[in-house]
Structures
1.
Amino acid sequence: MEEKDKDIFEHTTKFNTGIRLYMFQTGSIKTKVKFIKMNQGEEPYEIPVPWFLIKHPQGDVIIDGGMPIEAALDKHKHWGSVVEAYDPVMKASEWCRDQVKTVNTNPEDVKNVIQTHLHLDHSGAIGHFPNATHITQRIEYDYAFNPDWFSQPAYIKEDFDKPNIKWKFLQGKKTDYYDVYGDGVIKIIFTPGHTPGHQSVLINLPKTGHMLLTGDACYTGDHWCDRCLPGLVASASDAADSVAKLRKIARETNAKVVWGHDPVTWLDWNKAPMFYYD
């Protein structure tokens, strides 16, 4: 293990009180198996669209934000032909800006929005939290404006090309394991493959311990176990390497692992607003 990586396992965190992880969902997406598990079947398949809120004394943090409000108001206008393959099922009340209020967070309280990547089902928070810094990888931001042809439908420019957004750009391996508040609670891990600038999040909670949010670096348990690739990848080899990296981190931190869109295991997690992990 490289010296810079040892900090993720050896750093002793002096926890503040009141740190909580809330798991939310902005509806679901109706699709087919082959679009989630590469080359595997035409059967209908419905996946959850999770997002997360971390309450922290230095400012609340959103991870992604799920689908944008436009997916509930007029999905055909906003997503266009994408709906033929990925059909969003979302109520307006499930939008992240409204849901945060159910756990006594005001939009003004959110200090950071971590974007695992900028795909259309992860962009619901962008530009809707006035005091937030949006943290993404520089390569992801640049790629979103000029993606390869096979990835282009997954990026909707109107979701992220907005004025007056404060961005913080990470730099791939140079900033790997970026510690958001410098206290060991929230660390961002560079996990390219699904997109060139995908990132996952490792959270260290006072009671629960480590929780690893893979994002779309690993959609489902099949990806985790090397039984298939995600339905959409920018680089198959990077995607495989990133899953191997995440498995190693999970072993060494004894982390509970939350996969990005697994419809079976998602049912077992405690959901907001009633429940949380601390």
2.
Amino acid sequence: MEKKKILYISQEITPYLPESDMSVIGRQLPQGVQERGREIRTFMPRYGCVNERRNQLHEVIRLSGMNLVINDTDHPLIIKVASIQAARMQVYFIDNEDYFHRKFILNDADGKEFKDNDERAVFFARGVLETVIKLRWAPDIIHCHGWLTSLVPLYIKKYYYNDPLFNQSKVVYSVYDDGFKETLNPEFSDKLLLEGITKEDVSVIKDPNYVNVSKLGINFSDAIIKGAENINADVEKHIKSSDKLVLDFQPKETYIDAYNDFYEEVS
């Protein structure tokens, strides 16, 4: 019997970033699921604060070199990889000089959110999916962690739906307490209008605040997981009204088994 394939797309993973609910799950969950007999691939952004030398990142030349067009501008896609030896797993990093070489994650040194976080989300989501296509690896489940991954469900259902690697994939979206305060670029929705994606599909982010961006991720997912004990009340209300499969917050002692079982229910 062929192993189920799980693609993890994470906003944060420790030890590359400080520990948080999301980064710890991003690190421990793929290992735990792999140990339960699944095949995994794991992706995160190569933020400028990720120490390449200490973490032994190196570029994967055969996967790099593509340009992604965002808002009529070409942006080179660079893929790097590192190994977590204790977990026997690799982490792929999506890198680009314009979007990910600054020394902070989503906010600058003064805590102000970056003005191009919308385009960084676009580049990350598309960069992961284009890389998976290059790997010729067809995931059964695509599990997204954090709002920066909120575009992945849209792209899978509306842009890549004809690709044989993705046409059977189910998307699980984990919601955390990772809200941002400022509204994203007001032209965000226009930057998403690739072939197959209509203005109606992205109308929920006409006002691209945290709640609406989260709603977009929820709307195009097959199932939702509450990754944190306390999530935004408006987002929680939308989850309840969405008629999606939902897994409530799980304690750290049992969440890996609970998620693993949930994948079976979703697929």
